[in-house]
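Quick start: what a row looks like.
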Amino acid sequence: MRNAIRSADPTRIVHYEGDNRREVSDIRSRMYESPSTVEGRARDTSDTRPYVMIEYSHSMGNSTGNFKEYWDIVRRYPVLQGGYIWDFVDQGLRRPIPSGGSGTYLAYGGDWGDNPNDGNFCANGIVTADRRPSGKAAEVKRVYQAITVSAGADVTSGVVKITNENLFTNVNEFTGRWALVADGTAVQSGALTAAQLDIAPLTSKTVQLPVQRPTTPAPGEEHFLELSFTLTTTTAWADAGYEVARHQLPVNFSSPPVVPTPVADVPALTVTEASDRVTVAGTDFTVVFAKATGTISSFDAMGVRLVNSGPVPNFWRAPTDNDRGNGQPSRNGTWRRAGLDRTVTGFSVSKPSDRAVRIAVTGTLPTSTTSTYTTTYTVYGNGEIKVDNTLHPGATSLPYIPEVGTILFLPADLEQVRYYGRGPEENHWDRNSGSDVGVYSSTVSGQWTGYIRPQENGNKTDVRWVALVNGSGRGLLAFGEPLLEVNASHYTPEDLSTGARHDYQLTRRSEVVLRLNHRQMGVGGNDSWGAQTLDQYKLFANRDYSYTYRLRPLPDVGQALALSRRPVETAGGGSGPQTGVYYRLVAQHSGKAADINGASTAAGALLIQWSVSSGLNQQFDFVDSGSGYYRIRARHSGLVLQVASSSTGADISQQPDSNAASQQWRVVDQGGGTVSLVNRQSGLAMDVFNASTADGARISQWTPGGGANQRFALQRV
């Protein structure tokens, strides 16, 4: 066949996936290989033929995860020529809802009584059958865009690098604009000049935008530099103004840290304990805790019911098509009812001050090897509730966890949603490159992302705060310390796990189901018939999970940002380190331990993170320096941890003990058995650089923000 084709047209490229031999096919190809396998083929220098993923990123249902990982590899190796997503659009046929139901639904295999059938395997598109775009489409557009932007040598001065991947089109054929965004609001903006836009195909240019450094950024204020490229004129396929590429770059202007509200500044509380409940009351609010469940049974403030019940520990997500295809519902099923069927083993009440009440709940989870959890509530006199959560999986052999989080049930009239995080589309841990950080408004019902077969949907990542309010703008504010994943819906994960084939078969709850999560595993997308989510996007049972969020009454939705930046300082009663005791410092984002690099005993050896081991270079004791500060001494060397300077990003190394301020650390209780470590000289917190989860990642210092990469469990040796 090849010879016949070549004899007819010697210029024709021949491709045949069924036979990849050089003498048959000019192109190497395979279907549905993982990113790592694709990279392995790119590095195979024994065969330099172009490689094409002739089908990849199977986009069935809530899918198309780790798409950026594919394209990071494609862009790294010229031999890789890209590939063909399967596929563009779902296929479904409109049918009337049966049994007198109003409206129609999208039918698929089996809905006509047909057997055999292929079920919903006709629905693999990044666009729905009725041509609605999805979070999948947003991700593909962002990753595929041919104009990319990266931070230059000094992005705080507006220096960026623009790369034109187009083969024939100069960037100057588009209109380019930039904006500096502070906490979701553009505070500076402008147009790129003709000279800045003059970037020939397959070249890059570094340009400087006229960004002015904010003179007095507010405490905790976040900044992003956004660039957008749009069509200058109308084309056959889109109108003028259509955006062909955009990028969002974080910019660190060293905003001052958030200043907590002193406990002394909030009103006093009363606490009443009965046999079955504890009631905490303050100025214009009352919250009731049920002893049997360890959850809130009511939270009222400002004359409004804010919470009906919760937070209930939750470790399950509704199965996606990819989950069903790889057997996750049965393989990981031990987590499905772990939170619902928990046993509360402890419920204690303490009062660190007359303005704070702490309620500590412990319990067991009926996983195949029993796991444990804790929830600690600290109620403050202004109605704010700090919620510290931990999960301790019972064995490393337990299957990975679909979700680590909690569920709250809110009144139906808290239907309006505003949040500061990634959006506006649904996004996930492994599929959020196309969803920018911003402030978005919608409704709870509007968070629903419809798939042809009901499954997990509506998730939002990197959420700073979320407000659920009524028509008057009053309601509940929840904010993470620092980030959460959030899902607001009228369905629980269990509601979506019962096997319904279509949305009309579901029973919608009137109340709001609010999930405040540490994290949900990624959705995956290599294929839908066996491939699991990539390991880096799984929640393995080989570590503990700790996370914190706060709930508080919100008198007006316009105050959400400001109130999220004034948390009440942690009340007393935390457990600091004991002198004469050795600890590991285990980073909460990675589960890895602070480690003196290479177990060196030399002065100047750097502090890094590494997988937990029994090494003495991962063991430290705390030497009291007075005034609430400690030196942190490495067991193997006897040297103490010291910052190199007062700058953000400065290294931390071990040095001879001089009791200098650069060697003194304040231990700040972050709840859930975790602490942050703040240097006396710099006022900056110990921080795993860039929140890396890799072995060998540098531990430096950074502006305190409460991130999981700044929170360490003191693991007593």
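That is the whole record. The first helix runs from residue 2 to 8. The two ends are 69 Å apart (CA to CA).
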